[in-house]
Amino acid sequence: MVNVTLRQLLEAGVHFGHQTRRWNPKMKRYIYGQKNGIHIIDLQATARGLLDACRFVSATVAQGRAVLFVGTKRAAREIVEQEAQRSNMFFINNRWLGGTLTNFQTVKRSIERLNTLEKARADGRFDLLTKKEALELSREVEKMESVLGGIKAMRNVPGAIFIIDPKKEYIAVREANRLNIPVVALCDTNCDPDGIDFVIPGNDDAIKSIRLFTAAIADAAIQGAQMSRNDNGAGMVVNDGPSVEVVQRIHRPDSAPEASASPEYTDSADNA
Fold this sequence. Notes:
Distance between the termini: 34 Å
Number of helices: 7
Strand order of the largest sheet: 6-5-7-8-9
CATH architecture of the largest domain: 3-Layer(aba) Sandwich
Largest sheet: 5 strands, parallel
């Protein structure tokens, strides 16, 4: 059971959005008001969005499909890695490579090379090379590991992706939309919710907020894996007494952004 209270949301600062001048009007439905030039997020909407997202993630994993955790901003990197590993899911927390989803076969070849080089180093075959050759290969492994390390066991595109800050990770959103891969995202008041299947409105900058939501999604994934093994169908609750409402699903708006026709296998820009 994934159990989060409104008090926990408040204590994590989930309700603090961005400055009102930086808002995206499409997030209006998730905003309660404003104070001192800062938008205040409606925590009832947050609770509903989190419940919906957790139910979906649990069901996805229960069907044997993986969830890819994505968060490359500095505040999210360590948390995304920890929670993805805890739930035995894949993650990207350093840099999103263009084509990670839409050109996965190319990415898969890079993953295979990384695995081959790591095995060669572990077997001591690097010791048979010259110092220069061993150093060059070691640097290549380190560079590839920083980008592909969280997905090097991923054999197919994921069943869903969970994103911290879709404004920054817009390329990941675009690629997922193109392949009809459902997107779950923590969206602050400056984000565009178009293209997001499950919007979780909340602070995507504060570490406590990021940790709370990422841990909840990880817990849902763990529960999904248990449901798959045990077929017990346990449910999830986001609660704080009767004040929390429940909705069945937040559907993707019709105006999802178009994907580029042929994304290249290149590093994405760093959009802070």
